[in-house]
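Sample entry (252 residues):
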Amino acid sequence: MTAATDDLCPNDDRAWPQEGRERLIYPSPVGWKGTDFVDNEGELLKLLNPKTVFMMGDNPALPRMPERPRLMDFFRCRFGDITVRHLLVSAKRALDDGLPEKVVLACLLHDISNGCLIRCDHGYWSAQLVEPYVDPEVAFAVKYHQALRYVPDESVGYAYPESYHAFFGPDYQVPDYLLRDAEYAKNHKWYMTARQMTLYDTYFFDDFPVVVPEELEDVIGRNFREPEEGLGFDGSPTAHMWRTMIWPNNFL
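Predicted structure, serialized as tokens:
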């Protein structure tokens, strides 16, 4: 986390949970299965005592989220720097090119789960995250952009990304479910909305000026329904996913 990000997520006067005790963090298996991490839950359980507990609630090592978080609070206080830049640049490029605001918002949200939740099937997870708060066309575009990234469309000048050869290898075989979903999207009335996102889903953007979140606030205000209670606390079907990003180190 950079100092600039810390300044955007200032601490407040609320008491920290579990203050005065050592907080143990047990990472979620979805993040370490298949790696060389050795499951240490049993060893952590042996360390529990009145002064040592499992992490629950705000982690003092992370920038503190507001009590009623809004969309941009996650960009500032939770998402990795590459994800933030990627999403902001994608959306700003679409905005500068005069695309409809639904496309601009979809570009801003398309990889949102990558920021602080999960990368696998990120289009599907990202669409679920935002579905209660956006127009159905936006959620559709976010979901299906993942599959469409693998499928060229010469009519709009979209080719299979060269970067995917580097990421996955030149012999990578696209799974059937992605090809099936791409075919479904190609025959849908909102196909071009999702396809536009693939054109603005650029991984390498060193030559693009820095984009600050404030440049997209008007688009967000008109197209993203910010709950009064804050994302994660409004009782929506995906509130738990936003809470997971607020408290990513909770034991339970």
